[in-house]
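Can't paste images in this forum, so I'm doing it all in text. The chain is below; anyone willing to post the predicted structure tokens underneath?
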Amino acid sequence: MMREIDISYRTMFAELTQRTLDGQFLADFPMEGWFVTVTVKDRNYWYFDLPDGEGKYKRSYVGPESDEEITARVKAHKQIKDDLRERRRMVSTLRRAGLPGPDTFAGDITKALADAGLFRLRAVLIGSVAFSTYAGMLGVRLPSSAMQTGDADFAQDFAISAGVQDSLPPILDILQSVDPDFRAVPHQADKAKEVAFQNGRGYRVEFLTGNRGSDEYTGKPSPMPALGGASAENLRFLDFLIYEPVRTVLLFREGVNVLVPAPERYAVHKLIVASRRLTDTLGRVKSDKDLVQASLLFEALVETRHEYELVDAWEEAWDRGDSWKEGLCNGLLRLSAKGVKALGKALGSKMPDLEKLRADDRPK
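Text version of the structure:
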């Protein structure tokens, strides 16, 4: 049985998430500016106007008015106070209690991008760095071996990037503030566009987006207006992963407020992509890690009584078509016994018949 974290630490993690959002909000939007609403395609969005001292102002995207947390902070802007020392104490307490955080370099990269406004512009932290946040979010202990990574991945929906009318500073400048050795990596299909950045030790930062409705974008980079000159790699299934991301905190320094995929979507997505990795050594290693993370999250979601969210995510993926069903079934065939048991407990009669899948998978 997966060990749950004491309720006091779960409460502290939730409070830290709120405090880091408050702190980031005040840093992003100084007291001398003001908020305005802008209507785009019948939806209202918050923007922030900051005077430049010369009779003009810079307008920055804040978020949709429908986001209750954002709107509450807009209304309480003057009352928000940041306490870095207390937040650092909370992070240290949670780390000593066994909750994981990123390695120092991944933390520095994520914090630099967060401070530049990446998550304000609705980008999403994905991959193993995001996985490390699920322990605190779900209130369970997850093994640190499932979180080791040599890269950091971020995703953004193309429509959001095109619609916010705001942008980060140049991505390369942000990354070089952490490590001057970072350089842009030209995309293989279009050398003029950059979706990845790498330093001298091979640490890679990559930007991704979901395929926009057809395979014509597969293998091609998409220009992302909000990403400071960077483009993003189009990937199938990614739109499912980053739909309605959740806000949480990365346990690093005073805490970094980030957006990550909902854990149930992360788990189902990992099951699909595990069977679609390259079959070389690196591809097999990544595939194995995909399955470990999916299995751990299936167990955690069931153990913490979030099986209904898991069922909803599974059914959405299953109903998307034959290629999605094939990916789910192929992943199931390689999933650990504990993961299969947890998923079966959640799905009940909707669980695919593994014996039949194994029979169909045997060479004819």
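The two ends are 39 Å apart (CA to CA). The chain has a mean pLDDT of 89.
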